[in-house]
Amino acid sequence: MKKLYAGFVAAALAFTNISAVPQQGLKVWNNKQCAVVLTYDDAVDIDLDNVVPALDSVKLKGTFYIIGSSPVINNRMELWRKAAKEGHELGNHALFHPCDGSQPGRSWVSPDHDLSKYTIGRAVDEIRANNVLLKAIDGKNERTFAYPCGDLKIGGVDFYTALRKDFAGARGVTGGLQSAAQVDLDNINSFTIQNQPADYMINLVKKAQETHTLCVFLFHGVGGGHSINEDRTAHAKLLQYLKAHEKDIWIAPMVDVARNIKAEQGK
């Protein structure tokens, strides 16, 4: 089993040239060894039932990427408002979560929300409309975006270019640890987590500590509630490790980390 864990970590770190990461100053990571961001996609019930209570129990903050049309937003708006007041970020995951239906394995994409049939104007309008909804919930003007399905382009053009001024940054789906200088705020790396052992996640954090880099986790379901699921106990073990090493690790919402990176890159 240990060999299996090692394989998971080696595969994930293959995305990162660790030897090329400089031992930079740590001010960008809030004067700690590294930064860890916990992100949760799609605005599902399990976010409110399992994840927010788990984070609150150890006083850690996460980023929840919200699909504005999700019935979980309409039905449980006060709980989302409460989560935002407690310091969790409500990020933008588009109004209808459009994905590129022309890609392989995307037969499930609704014709009405097929990104390959969108114009850039339509995508931008829907994402900005979702920002209005999120501001009505949390009262905030600054947040980050996450690409639905990790799709970046419409007709070969990066649609986020038209949205740069609307967000502090945009989270993608490509795995990898990065220094602040290496981060592309238009497409921030993240590790998609699905049925991974706790050791896999914790070892990624340890490597981030060693290399003074950013480690972003991308969860969907935690303990059920989504087809892309992570075991609730494994997730809890990750949180326990982060809490136990909080003096060395900056655990913060994506918007806070992106803001620091932008300031560092602008020097």
Q: Approximately what portion of the residues adopt beta-strand conformation?
A: 5-15%
**Unreliably modeled segments:** 1-6, 14-24
Q: Give the beta-strand count.
A: 12
Mean pLDDT: 92
Tell me the series of helices and strands, N- to C-terminal. HEHEHHEHEEEEEHEEEHEH
Q: CATH top level of the domain at 2-17 and 27-94 and 168-265?
A: Alpha Beta
| Proportion in helices | 25-40%
* Number of helices in the DSSP assignment: 8
Largest sheet: 6 strands, parallel
**From the helix content, strand content and strand pairing, which structural class follows?**
alpha/beta
Shape: globular
The CATH topology of the domain at 2-17 and 27-94 and 168-265: TIM Barrel
Distance between the termini: 45 Å
Using only C-alpha atoms, the radius of gyration works out to 18 Å
Looking at CATH, the homologous superfamily of the domain at 2-17 and 27-94 and 168-265 is Glycoside hydrolase/deacetylase
Architecture (CATH level 2) name of the domain at 2-17 and 27-94 and 168-265? Alpha-Beta Barrel
Structure description:
- This protein is an alpha/beta fold.
- The chain has a domain of 182 residues: Glycoside hydrolase/deacetylase (TIM Barrel), CATH 3.20.20.370.
- The protein contains eight helices and twelve strands.
- Strands 1, 2, 3, 8, 9 and 12 form a six-stranded parallel beta sheet that branches.
- β1, α2 and β2 form a beta-alpha-beta unit.
- α6 packs parallel to α7.
- It is globular.
- The N terminus is likely disordered.
What secondary-structure arrangement, pairings included, does this model have?
Layout: H1 2-13, E1 34-41, H2 45-57, E2 63-66, H3 71-75, H4 77-85, E3 89-92, H5 120-138, E4 145-146, E5 153-154, E6 157-158, E7 170-171, E8 191-192, H6 198-211, E9 214-219, E10 221-222, E11 229-230, H7 232-244, E12 249-251, H8 254-265
Parallel strand pairs: 1-2, 1-9, 1-12, 2-3, 4-7, 8-9, 10-11
Antiparallel strand pairs: 5-6
